[in-house]
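Quarterly update, task 2.4: zinc ion-bound model.
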Amino acid sequence: MGLDVPEMKELLHPTLPLHYGDQIGEGEVGGPRHLSSVLPAVSAAIGHPVSTPMHPSPRKLQEALSLPDARSAVVVLVDGLGFWNLATRAGHVPYLRSLLNEPLNQRPLTTCLPSTTVAAMGVFGTGTCPGLTGMTGYTQLNPENGLISQMIQFRNAIDPLDLQRQPTVFEQLAAQDVRVTSCGLPRFRDSALTRAALRGSDYRSADHSRQRIMDTARAAREPGLTYLYIRDVDKVGHHRGWDTPEWIAALEGADSLLALLHRSLPKGTLVLIVADHGMVAADPHQRIDIAREPVLKDGVDLVGGEPRAVMLYARKGTDPGAIAERWRNRLGDLAQVMTKEKAIGAGLFGQVEDRVRPMIGDLLVLAHDRMTLVDSRIQIDAATRLPGVHGSSTILETRIPCLIDLV
Ligand SMILES: [Zn+2]
């Protein structure tokens, strides 16, 4: 059964808010079908349910995701592979297309806000939310030193173990004597992001992608959980745009690796393919440079977040409401401007611990359509002109695949 891809106009529609938790109300988005549900649901599927503050009932999540029981499960996270990005290009990828043809696999999950790797990895790894992990975006304020920290490398940041205090699902499985194996690049073994969000697994590293597939298949012979991360789709998407032949080539590369994985796994293995977020093609004509607009700079001390989900930290003594009004007047329909209180009240960051509150900007600006908000004072020129971006609330950025393959 094929899948109808909506018009781009519809895919660029903003969707708010995205709910956390095991329950979901009529017309709400997220709940049990959310990135935060994936590892708790899989833990239930392999017979060792791990509950989290946002998800007390892993069995319900397993049901919501329609995961069969299995002794051994492989979870693959393909960075940047939005559900609709994939569906648009399914003609190029025979293995992924065969999965997408299953009605069960035609129901996307929702990622967190901001729809970006740092926040999403925290949410995925712990089964919780950015308000608990303290991982709220590509960059954020470090209240301990007053600096903007870059959270991929944790530059200027609080130590990963001190910042991210939620136990990871990997840790909780390992504590039950369940085998947990990660297969990835050598340089991510002890990276700050791995230590913060994905600690607790036995990490097998290999330089070559095919070797990582073989390592994954070998690990999966034993009961337990195996995690595999695939990176290139996001990288190429950022630097070339997701609507390009180069992105299709990266997607084809991922497809052939995943097909190889499928062929190499023992019968009965459960494979679940997900992503951290999707991607939008930036429109260079909709690029706004905060540095060049006095009305946007006024009263703003620091700028964090990312081009599709900017966080503004107000100068001491400046009313964030006044900044919000100036931004709304300038941006109109181009973006949604929210105060921190409004964003937290709407549940955007899930439950928010007191220690995390100061890390979140006084204002959150979510870009609409294909626009970007950059700051040439703090970003290098190339970073302000990336052809592919994500972070905001559009369907294209926030819907992620949940492809089940019982080998
Ligand atoms: Zn990315």
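Highlight for this quarter: Residues 245-264 form the longest helix (20 residues).
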